[in-house]
Amino acid sequence: MTNPNDSATGFAWSQEQQGTSGLTKREYFAAMAMQGLMANGNYITNYKFLGEESVMFADFLIAELNKKPNHDTPNN
């Protein structure tokens, strides 16, 4: 199960800091999506849309990761 609020790195200095250090998985996935969209060059002037799309892609990825794998379907 991929929890979007879990730490992307899983690293913490101590038990008390667990989950409070660094980016969440959702933030990390959104940042990676934003990086890819910005590399395209078409989104650079529409910052609101860029942010919304990046978060949407992160949420879609988390939803896909949380689906139960279907081992009956052959890989293409």
Describe this structure in words.
- The chain has 76 residues and is an all-alpha fold.
- It has helices at 25-40, 47-65.
- α1 packs across α2 (47-65).
- The longest helix has 19 residues, at 47-65.
What sort of overall outline do the alpha carbons produce when their principal axes are compared? globular
Structural class: mainly alpha
How much beta, percentage-wise? under 5%
Counted beta strands: 0
- H/E element order: HH
Number of helices: 2
Give a brief outline of the structure.
With 76 residues, the protein is mostly helical.
Please tag this protein with its features.
mainly alpha; 2 helices
Write the layout of secondary structure elements.
Layout: H1 25-40, H2 47-65
Helix pairs in contact: 1-2
